[in-house]
Amino acid sequence: MTEKSSCKINEMVYAKLVLYNPTAQRMAVHFSGGCWFSFVVRDMLGTVIHNETWPACDPDINGYENTTNVMLVDPGGGRWFPMTWNQLDGLGKHVPVPADYVLSWSFKNPDLPIPEASKTITLTDQVQSQLEAFSASAFRFLQDFPPVVWFVGFVGTIPWSRALQRTKTSARLMMFVPAALLGIAILILILGFYSNQLLCLAIQCPGTISLLNSMNVYLLITPIIWGILFLTGKMAPEKLMWLPLVIFESWTFSPLIIAFSVLNSAQELWRNTFYYDPAIVWPAYAVILANIPAQLIFYRAFKKKLLSTEPFVPVVPKPPW
Questions:
Q1: 131 pLDDT band (50/70/90 cuts)?
Q2: pLDDT by residue (tens digit) across 33-54?
Q3: Spans of all domains in the chain
Q4: Domain 6-125 - what CATH class?
Q5: What is the pTM of this model?
Q6: 144 CB burial (10 A radius; 0-12, 13-18, 19+)
């Protein structure tokens, strides 16, 4: 498969060979004479324009190519072989455009019948603009964005961590333990019941898109919950001020975990199938970006009110004399 069906002149062509195992058993493909597959580009007359040979087996424990020449394919999953073509022929010259070309992949001497895969792509004579080139690079950068979620979540808790630094240990536990427990519970729920849908490991991904859309509903109502908790905090007496703040921290930490799961799943989905829908990922990005200002607003509005009652009153250290 290819990322696009049509590419402009000098635009990198991104392609991927997917070997899918639809059975419930792990398959072992044995090769004779080396574990390789070919990536060939031909014009519409069948003339070979570009030819590459790539290893098909995993490295062994020593870091070298698998000397057993055995390729394992997990049940219900697949193997992916990403490739690129710079639109040059074997002599390093740009191929004629506009024209159609056939990209094909075939494994060399497997013991199981693996049909040759092919895909026709159109190269146009239009020139790729600098904006298009930049946006493509930016998009691939954003695909590796999920780990930043944890950093953003950590930054958002810094003000409260510093404000509660001199309070009793019991006060800090009251604030952060419920949020941590809820976050862990949601993570276990996601990984325990929906890991197959989140990790789209093949060209067929039943339920993945609908699951991500369902998780996005949780993210989209987060600002509404923040607003309700803010109004509740304004009306709550000082002795109960901790309660809406605990709910706020717990609710905020949970969407960060869900946002991480959505972005990570979208990354896997694009990496394995070239499928990408901005409507799936924008709620996750929105919650990530809104987390820090929401934390600061609650911090400035309720810090004094929270720290004025036990057990949140800061402990004044005794003088050394």
A1: low
A2: 778 888 899 999 989 999 888 8
A3: 6-125, 143-306
A4: mainly beta
A5: 0.64
A6: exposed
